[in-house]
Design brief:
With 234 residues, the chain is α/β, with parallel strands linked by helices. 42% of the residues lie in helices and 18% in strands. It has a single domain, classed as 3-Layer(aba) Sandwich (Glycerol-3-phosphate (1)-acyltransferase), CATH 3.40.1130. The two termini are 27 Å apart. Belongs to the 1-acyl-sn-glycerol-3-phosphate acyltransferase family.
């Protein structure tokens, strides 16, 4: 019961904040600047749940130029980790299904979030190509390369979209690893208590001079570094 109450409050908070913010951000128009409002709405959740966020390697995320941020994906709680470190003018890339989730999808769209259809490879490639051409307008893109939530003890194979994007735009990749939630959260065991979450920002990976043929090796190199950090934090 405790687990379901906490999950319901988490989801209810997101919906309520999206509903309250949507009319205001609609007046401002679709803009990545609206992400600041979404971030401010989600930040208090960690206090309600008694979850302490500890950031390691923040000096690596001193971003002034466009880049691609890749992060592991475990659960909806990743939102709390994301807003803890997301740079200004950073645009997350999310699954298209989110766009149809009522006021939540509307608020996300108004905040400049880019939606991608995971089930249509050609459409996804088109979105990646268009994003690469316009990246100079934004500071960063935030992508979960596993493509779906994963609470296993190891990371899923990475989809290559984020790495194609970085190579096409010739921008660096910043890997971010969120530590396992096992101590305080598990959807399988219906556990949701207070605890500490560590967010580790790894050194950037340059892509300058790389071409599409380098993407498979680049993807595996970044995944290996992130998986090692995840295992260490476990």
């Amino acid at each position: 019961f405790h687990y379901f109450c906490r999950v319901a409050f988490f989801n209810g908070w997101i919906v309520a904040m999206s509903t309250l913010l949507s009319p205001f951000v609609a007046l401002r128009g679709r803009s990545v600047e609206n992400m600041k409002l979404l971030r401010a709405a989600i930040l208090p959740l960690k206090h309600f749940y008694g979850i302490k966020m500890r950031v390691e390697g923040s000096e690596h995320l001193n971003i002034k130029d466009p880049c691609v941020i890749v992060c592991n994906h475990q659960a909806s709680l990743d939102l709390m980790g994301m807003v803890e470190v997301i740079p200004d003018r950073c645009v997350p890339i999310a699954k298209k299904e989110l766009m149809y989730m009522g006021t939540v999808g509307w608020a996300c769209w108004l905040s400049g979030i880019i939606f991608i259809d995971r089930h249509k490879r050609e459409d996804a490639i088109d979105v990646i190509s268009q994003t690469a051409r316009t990246m100079r307008r934004e500071n960063a893109m935030w992508i979960f390369p596993e493509g779906t939530r994963n609470q296993d003890k190891s990371m899923l194979p990475f989809k290559r979209g984020a790495f194609h994007l970085a190579v096409q735009a010739q921008v660096p990749i910043f890997p971010i690893v969120i530590s396992p939630y096992w101590d305080f959260f598990s959807s399988k065991d219906k556990k949701f208590t207070s605890g500490t979450c560590t967010i580790r920002i790894l050194p950037k990976v340059d892509t300058e001079g790389l071409s599409p043929k380098d993407v498979p090796e680049l993807t595996e190199t970044v995944r290996r570094a992130m998986a090692d950090a995840f295992a260490e934090m476990s």
